[in-house]
Amino acid sequence: MAHIIDITVDPRKAIESACDVLADGFPIAIPTETVYGLAADATNPAAITRIYETKGRPRFNPLICHMADLAMAEQYAIFDPVSRALAEAFWPGPLTIVLPLRSESRIHSLATAGLDTVGIRLPRGFAGDLIRAFGKPLAAPSANTSGKISATSAAHVEADLGAKLKLILDAGASVVGVESTIVKVEDGKLRLLRPGGLPAEDIERVAGQKLHRAKKASAAIEAPGMLASHYAPGAAVRLGATHIDAGEAFIAFGATSLPGAEKAAIVLNLSPEGNLAEAAANLFDYMKRADASGAGTIAFSAIPDEGLGEAINDRLRRAAAPRE
């Protein structure tokens, strides 16, 4: 089982222990403001292979590479003016920018799934300090079995992947609670590849242009989180519920309940006051709790598709999608 270190007790010791495991080519679970990540040396093919093996993740699905600062990111990728403006405005934070790789980049092609681009993010707080101490970028998808609910606490990681890891770093619950927003500039136009913890409206304000959204799912995987079925619990997921069937798990949003809620296996409310930031922070934890209730179906109230609601609804649609 994984060794768990509370980073609030001795951050320096946590970083030293983490760097030792990373240098040996093994992945570790790290806390970020979005979700917990399964991190390994982005320049080491053996370490990257272990990420894919630990998660059971298909190798055609690229990994986000996390950097300590903009100067480190510039060593590996080429920034156009719009991408640079977004980086300066929102890094560190829950924004991933897909950029062309530099020809001399040492990020291994396993991390980029063979693409000539790389998704880069600067995480806030401890994760950034760890990358700075390690001195190399960390490839870090979410720390959960591929396709399943993302982890927002060390306990989530331990329950899912604890037997496969050497080290889990614990910083409590993730503040944002959903993965980063992913964007890409292409032919001068800004594309939204995945909604996430940074609202689209904030990005558009800084970029001075609208984000272009795909009208239908693309067969090409350009960034993480683009698979049709993803973030899925064991139970079936029913969205936009107007009533609750007996024995279902019910995850509500806002002050209004639904008919039949009194017969639910469990009732949870993402945000009784209708706060989308609170709902995003609670989303994955509540999905795990609802799944653990033993209910065959998890029914969700409708959630506004604006601000962080766009990211929440994206995760829920993928959780509800048909599974292979």
Automatic annotation (TrEMBL):
Chain's role: Required for the formation of a threonylcarbamoyl group on adenosine at position 37 (t(6)A37) in tRNAs that read codons beginning with adenine.
Cellular component GO terms, alphabetical: cytoplasm
GO-annotated molecular function: ATP binding; double-stranded RNA binding; L-threonylcarbamoyladenylate synthase; tRNA binding
Organism: Rhizobium grahamii
Record keywords, A-Z: ATP-binding, Cytoplasm, Nucleotide-binding, Nucleotidyltransferase, Transferase, tRNA processing
Enzyme Commission numbers on file: 2.7.7.87
Record-linked InterPro entries: DHBP_synth_RibB-like_a/b_dom, Sua5-like_dom, Sua5/YwlC_C, Sua5_C, T(6)A37_SUA5, TC-AMP_synthase_SUA5
Highest classification ranks of the organism: Bacteria, Pseudomonadati, Pseudomonadota, Alphaproteobacteria, Hyphomicrobiales
UniProt protein name: Threonylcarbamoyl-AMP synthase
